[in-house]
Design a protein that fits this description.
single chain, 248 residues, alpha/beta, six-stranded parallel β-sheet, 8 helices, 9 strands, 31% helix, binds 2-amino-2-deoxy-6-O-phosphono-alpha-D-glucopyranose
Length: 248
């Protein structure tokens, strides 16, 4: 977790008016808590940063307790010096979600693209809400959520019927257009997806495998998420204790 926080902190220090791509989900909670702590301690400022979140549920207003808007406000935006007007998420309650998806992509493009995209990992290998078989060439649009993703997100909603069926999400091409990517995954429930992402074939069946195409993608795993890797000896050799390789 501190490794991912260190990468983000270094990126913001190198370019204070940075454009960050942000993710929601339980994996991000301790990371954002670390960033909030650094912000309070004065070692990290987000005052000049612009952010674009990966996704939002179709049908949810920004103040809905299960929305990505609400999550981001609670865990990162409100407790830091981040400026609300610089934080962009798709509007799930837009009258025409398809138009909103295109408009969100246009806002990213108009901002000059994303410097550093943060990603989590779905148990089925999804990134953002790009579910298995999403086009590797996709840009921001509406995706239908899988049953497994709706089950994983059931905890954020009062009753099952409230769990949204659709989301507006950056596409896989949108994500690959970011100038750098950091994917964070923790826990053994992510082990199979992490293995497919890193060591499996490049395939839309595992959307995260698209990161194999990116020249500056860093994957940060804890021991649980790394537990199914076949080449872990080599990864430990190149990145002892998760540190940069000698040539980084
Ligand atoms: C969610 C989000 C992703 C997130 C992933 C993992 O559905 N759309 O951005 O990375 O699934 O979530 P978690 O971190 O809660 O396991």
């Amino acid at each position: 977790m501190s490794r991912a926080a260190d990468i983000l902190t270094a990126a913001v220090k190198a370019k204070s008016a940075i454009t960050l791509g942000l993710a929601t989900g339980g994996t991000m909670v301790p990371l954002y808590a670390e960033l909030v702590a650094r912000n309070r301690a004065g070692s990290l400022s987000l005052a000049r940063a612009t952010t674009f979140n990966l996704d939002e549920y179709v049908g949810l207003a920004p103040d809905h307790p299960g929305s990505c808007h609400r999550f981001m406000a609670e865990v990162l935006f409100d407790p830091t010096d981040m400026r609300a007007s610089h934080a962009h998420l798709p509007h799930g309650d837009a009258l025409d979600p398809k138009v909103e998806a295109q408009a969100f992509q246009a806002r990213i493009d108009a901002a000059g693209g994303i410097d550093l995209q943060l990603l989590g990992l779905g148990q089925n290998g999804h990134i953002g809400f790009n579910e298995p078989t999403s086009s590797l060439g996709s840009r921001t649009r509406i995706k239908t959520l899988t049953v497994s993703t709706r089950c994983a997100n059931r905890q954020y909603f009062e009753i099952e019927a409230d769990v949204p069926r659709y989301a507006i999400t950056m596409g896989i091409a949108t994500i690959l257009e970011a100038r750098a990517i950091v994917l964070l995954a923790t826990g053994s429930a992510k082990a199979a997806a992490a293995s497919a992402m890193i060591e499996g074939p490049l395939s839309a069946v595992c959307p995260a495998s698209a990161l194999q195409l990116h020249p500056r993608a860093t994957v940060v795993l804890d021991a649980g998420a790394a537990s199914a890797l076949q080449l872990s000896d080599h990864f430990q050799h190149v990145h002892p204790e998760g540190q940069d390789s000698v040539f980084s």
